[in-house]
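Researcher: I'd like a candidate sequence for this fold, 243 residues long. If you have to choose between options at a position, lean toward the conservative one.
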């Protein structure tokens, strides 16, 4: 990764940039490959059609999946009020992609070119962020015990009642906590977790069938349906885009 606060660099599979924070806002984009941004609010996975946004002052870390063309764009603090006040992920339109690549490419061709491109980026991010790839993390110890078990083995087919016995909480209590703390059901949270892992496997070149089996789906068809609903494109199209 470049030493400068803005720029680009090829990062190896599994590269991890530990927890840190910035005085300015930060957009991170993988022109090739993929990565995850983690904050206290949860984890966002960003394949090549997403960009993550971290406002000033938020502790965060990054982890790359596959060989990643890592692009980093700084948004000065005085402009961050025009963007979301919390970390999130946005879809990348063709215009936004080209602006991000230009901002992290060669030096500006004319004075003020990067300032104007940055204004285009901010305009492109004016819409609502995407929530589909956000995996929130719990604060309650009982719920965290359950999510830790699933993080360790996302393909496990254990029911919530069985997980509850291991965590010392009833199924009813855990259902309530998933909705109250994470804003989604247990099954939805587990699906997003599995899709996160599937993105990693696909980025590393594993087949759709192998990925489905490794991440807990009983057959490729159900995996394709779930992946498409969360990511917005099929696993095959996602892999084709990486090439």
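Model: Candidate sequence:
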């Amino acid at each position: 990764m470049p030493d400068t606060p803005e720029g680009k660099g090829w990062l190896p599979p599994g590269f991890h940039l530990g927890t840190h924070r910035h005085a300015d806002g930060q957009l991170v984009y993988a022109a090739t490959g993929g990565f995850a941004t983690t904050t206290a609010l949860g984890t966002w996975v960003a394949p090549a059609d997403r960009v993550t946004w971290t406002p000033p002052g938020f502790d965060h870390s990054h982890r790359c999946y596959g060989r990643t063309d890592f692009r980093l764009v700084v948004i000065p603090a005085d402009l961050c009020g025009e963007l979301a006040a919390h970390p999130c992920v946005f879809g990348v339109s063709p215009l936004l992609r080209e602006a991000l690549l230009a901002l992290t490419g060669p030096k500006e061709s004319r004075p003020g070119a990067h300032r104007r491109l940055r204004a285009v980026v901010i305009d492109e991010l004016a819409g609502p962020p995407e929530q589909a790839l956000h995996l929130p993390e719990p604060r309650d110890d009982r719920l965290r015990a359950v999510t830790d078990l699933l993080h360790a083995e996302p393909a496990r087919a254990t029911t919530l009642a069985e997980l509850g016995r291991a965590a010392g909480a009833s199924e009813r209590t855990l259902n309530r906590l998933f909705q109250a703390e994470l804003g989604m059901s247990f099954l939805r949270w587990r699906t997003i977790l599995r899709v996160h892992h599937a993105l990693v496997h696909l980025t590393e070149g594993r087949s759709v069938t192998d990925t489905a089996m490794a991440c807990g789906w009983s057959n490729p068809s159900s995996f394709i349906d779930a992946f498409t609903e969360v990511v917005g494109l099929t696993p095959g199209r996602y892999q084709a885009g990486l090439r």
